[in-house]
């Protein structure tokens, strides 16, 4: 699991693997519900995909760059470009299915 900062975002998006970024904040209840699911996916699929988390309070420039208005928001990237977006608490199966579609 990687932590997104204003300085490492381009390196993470340059990954040859699909990238999942979880946009969240410590004060967000639904974010705390979704976080263990994202952690599980990182553990289970970490060899095939890059999973990162972006605290919108710590990296507000990145949140603005990707138009984050609601959290939690998951953005899926393929070849450095956004390929899909999910907002709110979503099922693990849906997240995994989206990642597998990008492989």
Would you mind describing this structure in some detail?
- 38% of the residues lie in helices and 26% in strands.
- The protein is α/β, with parallel strands linked by helices and 103 residues long.
- It has one domain: Glutaredoxin (3-Layer(aba) Sandwich), CATH 3.40.30.10.
- It has a five-stranded mixed sheet.
- It is globular and about 30 Å long.
- The mean pLDDT is 93.
SSE layout and pairing:
Layout: E1 2-3, H1 9-13, E2 19-24, H2 29-45, E3 50-55, H3 60-65, E4 73-78, E5 81-87, H4 92-102
Parallel strand pairs: 1-3, 2-3
Antiparallel strand pairs: 2-4, 4-5
Runs in which pLDDT lies below 50 for 5 or more consecutive residues are none
Largest sheet: 5 strands, mixed
The CATH C-level class name: Alpha Beta
Tell me the Rg in angstroms: 12 Å
| Helical content (DSSP H or I, runs of 4+) | 25-40%
Give a count of the beta strands, DSSP E runs of length 2 or more: 5
How do you describe this structure in short?
The protein is 38% helix and 26% strand. The protein has 103 residues and is α/β, with parallel strands linked by helices.
Please describe the structure with a list of short key phrases separated by commas or semicolons.
five-stranded mixed sheet, Glutaredoxin, 38% helix, 103 residues, alpha/beta, 4 helices
């Amino acid at each position: 699991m990687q932590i997104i900062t204003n300085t490492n975002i381009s390196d993470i998006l340059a990954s040859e693997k699909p990238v999942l970024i979880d946009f969240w904040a410590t004060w967000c209840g639904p974010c705390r519900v979704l976080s263990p699911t994202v952690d599980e996916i990182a553990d289970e699929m970490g060899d095939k995909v890059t999973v990162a988390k972006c605290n919108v309070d710590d990296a507000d420039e990145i949140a603005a760059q990707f138009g984050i208005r609601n959290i939690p928001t998951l953005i899926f990237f393929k070849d450095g470009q956004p390929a899909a977006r999910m907002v709110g608490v979503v099922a693990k199966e849906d997240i995994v299915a989206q990642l597998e579609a990008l492989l």
